[in-house]
Write a structure and sequence with these properties.
The complex is a heterodimer of chains A (332) and B (94).
Chain A (H helix, E strand, L loop, with lengths): L21 H12 L12 H26 L8 H26 L5 H9 L16 H22 L5 H29 L3 H20 L11 H6 L7 H19 L9 E3 L4 E3 L5 H11 L3 H14 L1 H21 L1
Antiparallel strand pairs in A: 1-2
Helix pairs in contact in A: 2-3, 2-11, 3-6, 5-6, 5-7, 5-9
Chain B lengths: L6 E7 L6 E8 L3 H12 L7 E6 L11 H10 L18
Antiparallel strand pairs in B: 1-2, 1-3
Classes of the chains: A mainly alpha (332), B alpha+beta (94).
């Protein structure tokens, strides 16, 4: 999974460079321009720290919330094989969340603070998870389209200028390919099934295609923080560039599956060497960003319940450690 | 609000004969759970045969702002490198 810069109130991130020490700032700018990695204890502008903390923590939250729609289907997987695969994928998503929280923590915000912000509804996560998973083909579509879009975005992030984020992305990318392939494999199998099963695949495609394109974030002409993020080498490619790459890569895969892309304007443009595609409904995107997605409330409720119901495990582990520490103290 | 568990740095030996390398970090209440969390987080795909965990608070690190001065002696002693010495061609394989 992945995230994009969603918080429009974050526009201030671009502004306060003026209060930084000009010599330090110039040295920092030169380092990132020279493709050097910035490490946790290095000097960095506050706006760089803030932007990264927000982006990495949103990315982490997306991994964690992303486990929820898939978890819903664990007990309804059609075979033991598919159940084992889905369980392994969900465990990976949890792992990706942990890599990312750790990377974000190196910037000076604790995991506890980030998780609290998520549970309080103050932190964003990818808009894609506020759509419902209605049939088993949705699990395949998430792997193929959602993780496919994530890969498009995460591959360039392996060279993002902040070292801990880049290293987390290297790990994530190694594991993400399995996620996309198992999803496509699941759909291929359903397409060999009954007409009803094939209809389920097409239905999943119809519902996930446009939200997947929205995952790349607002269009470049309405993405005010993009320029700064690209200058600081946080991002390497713009939202629209990545979106186009995704469309170009995915359309032939849909044809191979034998399903149609729900976009009457989609067509190959020989001159550009890319697919042209129809207009994205950005009103829908911004509504979902504002928390008006079809299952936004349900997701946060499930997330908070998972946290609260797991409290006894955390408390037991802490009590055990306290008792061990007391024993060590008594023995010393 | 509960207090989060302390942070541990995780080092993984990929296979026999290689050194342990830093992989990342985990939160855990004690060393034993830190090892288990490290196993689940960093070695799901045969990434390692051995794990070390150490409390992040116990790591002592050099100051990146002092890196220039700290590592300068290594840069200024060219005579430490074999290529500093110009030997006659007659001396082979040295």
């Amino acid at each position: 999974m992945y995230t994009t810069e969603l918080d429009k109130t974050a526009g201030s991130a671009a502004a306060p460079a003026a209060v930084e020490d000009p010599a330090l700032l110039a040295a920092f700018e030169a380092r990132v321009a020279n493709d050097e990695f910035i490490e946790p204890k290095d000097w960095m502008p506050e706006a760089y720290r803030r932007t990264l903390t927000r982006q990495i923590s949103q990315h982490a939250h997306s991994e964690i919330v992303g486990m929820l729609p898939e978890g819903n289907w664990l007990t309804r997987a059609p075979s033991l094989k598919r159940k084992a695969i889905l369980l392994a994928k969900i465990q990976d998503e949890g792992g990706h969340g942990l890599y990312l929280y750790c990377a974000a923590e190196t910037l000076g915000t604790s995991r506890e603070q980030m998780i609290e912000a998520l549970h309080a509804g103050k932190a964003k996560y990818s808009t894609i998870f506020n759509y419902p998973t209605l049939n088993w083909a949705d699990i395949g579509a998430i792997g193929w389209l959602v993780d496919g879009a994530a890969i498009m975005n995460q591959v360039p992030l392996q060279r993002t200028s902040y070292g801990p984020y880049a290293r987390a992305m290297v790990r994530v990318c190694k594991e993400e390919s399995f996620h996309q392939r198992q999803g496509y494999d699941l759909l291929l199998e359903m397409m060999k099934g009954t007409p009803e099963q094939r209809a389920m695949v097409q239905d999943a495609m119809n519902r996930w295609w446009w939200p997947s394109l929205m995952m790349f974030g607002p269009p470049d002409d309405n993405s005010p923080n993009s320029a700064q993020s690209i200058r600081w080498r946080i991002k390497r490619e713009t939202n629209d560039e990545l979106r186009q790459k995704f469309v170009d890569a995915t359309v032939p895969q849909a044809e191979l599956l034998g399903i149609t892309v729900p976009d009457p304007d989609l067509q190959w443009n020989e001159e550009r060497g890319h697919y042209d595609f129809g207009a994205i409904d950005w009103n829908e995107f911004y509504a979902v960003v504002r928390g008006e997605g079809p299952v936004a409330r349900e997701r946060m409720k499930a997330r908070r319940a998972a946290w609260d119901e797991g409290a006894w495990v955390r408390e037991a582990a802490a009590a055990w450690e306290a008792r061990q520490a007391a024993r060590r103290a008594a023995a010393a | 609000m509960s207090k989060d568990w302390p942070l541990w740095e995780v080092f993984v030996r990929a296979r026999g004969g290689l050194e342990h390398r830093h992989a990342g970090s985990v939160h855990a209440p004690d060393a034993e759970l830190a090892l288990r969390h490290a196993r689940d987080t960093y070695t799901r795909r045969m990434e390692g045969v051995s794990l070390w965990v150490v409390r992040s608070a116990d790591i002592v690190a050099s100051d990146p702002d002092q890196a220039g001065e700290l590592f300068e002696p290594a840069a200024s002693k060219v005579y430490r490198h074999p290529t500093f010495y110009d030997l006659p061609d007659a001396v082979k394989h040295m």
